[in-house]
Design a protein that fits this description.
It comes from Forsythia ovata. This is Late blight resistance protein-like protein R1A-10. It is a single chain. By secondary structure, this protein is mainly α.
Length: 117
């Protein structure tokens, strides 16, 4: 599962780094650095000598969670940028107020909901 999460994150990072797809404003150097680290982790997980290692098994969950969190942050940034570019200030303000109100009524912690599954 960690491997799949890293692959998905790699694809997202490559889309961002593609000059034809450069629609979101992120620090290119940070994206390149993250891409290098993700590529290293993919290579590490692909290494047959690591297969079945207790250390790797323990780390896979942490790797998966970190990759998913990075993906979520990037997607959130993309969504915010699209919203800001396409919506009027009144709509944005209303949307932010709605999110704040929902957060007060139903606090959402992604880690708690995934642990319950």
């Amino acid at each position: 599962m960690a491997y799949v999460s890293l692959l998905t994150l790699t694809q997202t990072l490559e889309q961002i780094l593609n000059p034809d797809q450069r629609l979101i404003l992120l620090d290119e150097q940070q994206i390149r650095c993250l891409h290098e680290k993700v590529s290293f982790l993919l290579s590490f997980l692909e290494d047959p000598s690591q297969e079945g290692s207790e250390t790797i098994t323990c780390m896979e969950g942490r790797i998966r969670d970190a990759a998913c969190e990075a993906e979520d942050i990037i997607e959130s940034h993309r969504s915010n940028q699209i919203l800001l570019e396409s919506a009027s200030p009144g709509v944005i303000s209303c949307f932010c107020e709605l999110i704040a109100a929902l957060s007060n009524v139903m606090p959402f912690n992604q880690h708690e909901s995934s642990d319950a599954v």
